[in-house]
Design goal:
homodimer, 2 domains
């Protein structure tokens, strides 16, 4: 729920330092001048995932190109502290919805994977990144989630850093609710958890058996109903955000 | 994440009793025969929000019309126990997304409202209901959320049953996190909470002031980022589902 009248926020790849001008892309220049009717001298906010958020002034540098001059840092760069999301690739619409909502809900890394039952075959990384950029600009995030290329689930599991817990959403399997797991067993390390969501159709039984055997995996339930895969991803991230790591700490403090 | 090979589930308005035939609609008959290639003798599941879930057998009753004969109840009707969702009307796509996901996440009632900053003017109740029916069929819910007609927020607040707590998602206002509120202050009554989500642009300051004064309202935060309105609605319901009422009880038990 954005307030009106907030400054336009844009993501840039460029370094942000006082009075070091930033060239805006053609698409950004078009958006600012044609869509939003901004011009030289107007203010905007810039972030690049490294240097915090900066207020900058617009300047024209040619007929259609705009640049921005960073004036002052409005927020410092916070440490990246979000969970990693691994999800069975879905069709274009739901996959893009997951990336958009996962960005809003603070995921630090998003990995689409191929599993036994994934039906979707391909994904355009550039489109997923574009959705993440737009979501980050709107939700006032100061970094982008890292979007990994599509890989087989096995490859992601083989490369998984074992000190990072991976919570696996398992429907129809006996597993404690995600909230219970987060409150009862906070991650033993300071690494935010990973969350693994299957594709439409869920995991195959042998996949669940394999996941159960991996020491860093814990199966969890997302409630009594059978959620669509994209709903499961959003619900798991929302629950994680509200309970871990700082959330859970606060909540436990107040319950104890 | 649905399993393959599960029976088709359909919502019907008809009563469900053993061997009392149920006429299926033209759309349902078309879906079963043309899209899913089912025919006489095949099994399906029916629910109507009152009589639980029934396994039924398909029968042809004319060239294109199908009927179903309930054979046995597969699940009893559970009591309706979900939260009420009140949301500032959005454009068609995000409003329909909210209804779909709120149905999956167990909302018992969904009320679109007009607020100071809502931009959308109209909503087709029948379309929202169609999204709720499809979501309920897919997520194995046994009832439909009640979808109220669009009304001014004031009218919904004036008619609000005061024994039911209304948790108001307020961005940029000092308010405790929703999870903290749910864990620390469970609803004093047995009525599931209401959740109120503003439109794009949030609530006006005077609206928040009014909401603060209402004895049944409590302001809550949904986290550090500024969520799109539809993300806020989904995240609030996911958090509520995982922590209240049974969830919170379990979680508290295990933390204490």
């Amino acid at each position: 729920m954005r307030q009106r009248q907030t400054l336009i926020r844009l993501f840039t790849e460029a370094d942000l330092r006082a009075d070091r001008p930033v060239a805006l892309t053609a698409a950004q220049s078009h958006y600012l001048t044609r869509v939003m009717r901004r011009g030289a001298g107007d203010s905007l906010l810039l972030f690049n995932g490294r240097d915090g958020e900066w207020r900058a002034s617009l300047a024209s540098v040619g007929k259609r190109a705009m640049a921005a001059w960073p004036a002052e840092q409005t927020r410092p760069q916070p440490p990246a502290a979000g969970p990693w999301l691994v999800f069975g690739l879905l069709k274009k619409g739901p996959s893009e919805l997951i990336v958009e909502k996962a960005t809003e809900l603070g995921a630090a890394r998003i990995s689409p994977v191929r599993t036994a039952r994934t039906a979707a075959e391909r994904v355009k990384d550039a489109r997923l990144t574009a959705h993440a950029v737009e979501a980050a600009e709107q939700c006032e995030r100061l970094d982008l989630p890292r979007i990994a290329p599509l890989r087989p689930l096995d490859a992601v599991l083989a490369a998984w850093p074992t000190e990072r817990r991976l919570l696996v959403a398992a429907e129809r399997a006996a597993a404690p609710p995600l909230a219970t797991r987060l409150l009862r067993e906070p991650s033993p390390t300071s690494h935010p958890d990973g969350l693994l969501i299957g594709p439409e159709g869920g995991f195959d039984d042998w996949e669940l058996d394999r996941l159960r055997e991996l020491p860093f995996c814990s199966l969890v339930s997302l409630g009594p109903r059978i959620l669509r895969a994209e709903t499961a991803a959003i619900a798991a991230l929302a629950c994680w955000q509200s309970l871990a790591p700082a959330g859970a700490f606060d909540a436990r403090q107040q319950v104890e």
